[in-house]
């Protein structure tokens, strides 16, 4: 919490006007003390201790509160209940910057109200008047506000009117921050209660999906799941409700009660739209069904992951998958390989194109001023349109470009870092589709078109990309027993061509005599090298070749 967001305050009041009740309420609402641990008048124990001269364990209660996405630290510093201890009161108040002046709206200003106000004024405190007990039939908040203005001379037009007892509860709102699929219990949802309470057996509603369920089980994470009967504002917990589809209870959605729905959902929900796409193909065609099952299981935990079957004559059967970004893509691939033991070839990531329209975005880069030049060159090279530049401080500039997302999915970030010696950072947002002059560049290996290697490029770059790509593929694809032509084409027209010359490869001929262990090592090494090869026609193409388009100079 930044120092500017720390508030040290106390509550001052005439006896019985509701100081302790309000303190309890604040502790409860901020989740500092959970309701089930909450004895009434939590802070009063301290009063007693102090009055008896016993050591005081807790002098201040620290509360955390989030407002407009900013964390605040609220330190409630207790003052003794009786002004007899005015020296003590004064000392506590000296530690504060502000005080809540609680006045019972059915009683009005009383002696201790005044005495406390004087002490607060002596300590230069910001005083916020609070008119309490407005729920009482005899409450006259307007009259009491006027009284405070007249007697104390304090502006009460913005006085807070409340009932510290606050009998009317706000409707439930709980934010889902994680979920996973349990084969026995269905989807397990992790959430934080922001408003209200949730009880076991209640009928709940997920606000974005509109789906309703009965919360069969709720509990806390401590850190293993432990059932409880009720969770309160500020608490983090889990629930299960025989939910079969993760899509019904997505991360970011708000849980409310089916019978008493909250008016609006908590911020945090936005539909996950995949932005980056790639093909995933099992190296061994027999693993296709396993791959499908693995993707389905992963999707249960990860609603942002999209996939649909794809087949091509060159690659066989696989899936076209959509991800939120490159990191998401890498994580999914890792999990498929590690957790599901699949051997995969992934094709270079690409973005969505709408017929003749290319995806556009605005990118903002922050850089120390000495790297502005190299960064603007990068923006220009990547078909970027310069938008604006501002100096944020004397030495740091913000540079804004609009550029095609397609130019970003590759090594843009790496380039930004290397051209600024690591000092520049970036942020981007999608701004929609833009028209662009694009062509589809196809690759043929040994006469077979390999769709997985096709890419969409700007017409001006087609020839240079075609040349660079065929050269790179020639480097990456091992030579075969026969000559292998590698061609780049636009439609039927070949625009670049390379060829791998034939070899007769006998790895073992390099071993003289009968050194068995060395032979084994060599064979093993060769087998490992083969693991990540995909047979395209008669040609074995390694994983790296499918990423070649990202690594062109
Ligand atoms: P303190 O002496 O200032 O700490 O006052 P307490 O918090 O102990 O409250 C005194 C009495 O007023 C208790 O019986 C509370 O339950 C009651 N009380 C406090 N706030 C409210 C309120 O907003 N409405 C009603 N109706 N009673 C309240
Ligand atoms: Mg009290």
UniProtKB/TrEMBL annotation:
<keyword id="KW-0496">Mitochondrion</keyword>
<dbReference type="GO" id="GO:0005525">
    <property type="term" value="F:GTP binding"/>
</dbReference>
<keyword id="KW-0472">Membrane</keyword>
<dbReference type="InterPro" id="IPR009000">
    <property type="entry name" value="Transl_B-barrel_sf"/>
</dbReference>
<dbReference type="GO" id="GO:0005759">
    <property type="term" value="C:mitochondrial matrix"/>
</dbReference>
<keyword id="KW-0999">Mitochondrion inner membrane</keyword>
<dbReference type="Pfam" id="PF00679">
    <property type="entry name" value="EFG_C"/>
</dbReference>
<comment type="similarity">
    <text>Belongs to the TRAFAC class translation factor GTPase superfamily. Classic translation factor GTPase family. LepA subfamily.</text>
</comment>
<keyword id="KW-0648">Protein biosynthesis</keyword>
<dbReference type="GO" id="GO:0045727">
    <property type="term" value="P:positive regulation of translation"/>
</dbReference>
<feature type="binding site">
    <location>
        <begin position="132"/>
        <end position="135"/>
    </location>
    <ligand>
        <name>GTP</name>
    </ligand>
</feature>
<dbReference type="Pfam" id="PF06421">
    <property type="entry name" value="LepA_C"/>
</dbReference>
<dbReference type="InterPro" id="IPR006297">
    <property type="entry name" value="EF-4"/>
</dbReference>
<dbReference type="InterPro" id="IPR000795">
    <property type="entry name" value="T_Tr_GTP-bd_dom"/>
</dbReference>
<dbReference type="GO" id="GO:0003924">
    <property type="term" value="F:GTPase activity"/>
</dbReference>
<dbReference type="InterPro" id="IPR031157">
    <property type="entry name" value="G_TR_CS"/>
</dbReference>
<dbReference type="GO" id="GO:0005743">
    <property type="term" value="C:mitochondrial inner membrane"/>
</dbReference>
<dbReference type="Pfam" id="PF00009">
    <property type="entry name" value="GTP_EFTU"/>
</dbReference>
<dbReference type="InterPro" id="IPR013842">
    <property type="entry name" value="LepA_CTD"/>
</dbReference>
<feature type="binding site">
    <location>
        <begin position="13"/>
        <end position="20"/>
    </location>
    <ligand>
        <name>GTP</name>
    </ligand>
</feature>
<dbReference type="InterPro" id="IPR027417">
    <property type="entry name" value="P-loop_NTPase"/>
</dbReference>
<keyword id="KW-0378">Hydrolase</keyword>
<comment type="similarity">
    <text>Belongs to the GTP-binding elongation factor family. LepA subfamily.</text>
</comment>
<feature type="domain" description="Tr-type G">
    <location>
        <begin position="4"/>
        <end position="226"/>
    </location>
</feature>
<protein>
    <recommendedName>
        <fullName>Translation factor GUF1 homolog, mitochondrial</fullName>
        <ecNumber>3.6.5.n1</ecNumber>
    </recommendedName>
</protein>
<keyword id="KW-0342">GTP-binding</keyword>
<dbReference type="InterPro" id="IPR035647">
    <property type="entry name" value="EFG_III/V"/>
</dbReference>
<dbReference type="InterPro" id="IPR038363">
    <property type="entry name" value="LepA_C_sf"/>
</dbReference>
<dbReference type="InterPro" id="IPR005225">
    <property type="entry name" value="Small_GTP-bd"/>
</dbReference>
<dbReference type="GO" id="GO:0006412">
    <property type="term" value="P:translation"/>
</dbReference>
<comment type="function">
    <text>Promotes mitochondrial protein synthesis. May act as a fidelity factor of the translation reaction, by catalyzing a one-codon backward translocation of tRNAs on improperly translocated ribosomes. Binds to mitochondrial ribosomes in a GTP-dependent manner.</text>
</comment>
<dbReference type="Pfam" id="PF03144">
    <property type="entry name" value="GTP_EFTU_D2"/>
</dbReference>
<dbReference type="InterPro" id="IPR004161">
    <property type="entry name" value="EFTu-like_2"/>
</dbReference>
<feature type="binding site">
    <location>
        <begin position="78"/>
        <end position="82"/>
    </location>
    <ligand>
        <name>GTP</name>
    </ligand>
</feature>
<dbReference type="GO" id="GO:0043022">
    <property type="term" value="F:ribosome binding"/>
</dbReference>
<keyword id="KW-0547">Nucleotide-binding</keyword>
<dbReference type="InterPro" id="IPR035654">
    <property type="entry name" value="LepA_IV"/>
</dbReference>
<dbReference type="InterPro" id="IPR000640">
    <property type="entry name" value="EFG_V-like"/>
</dbReference>
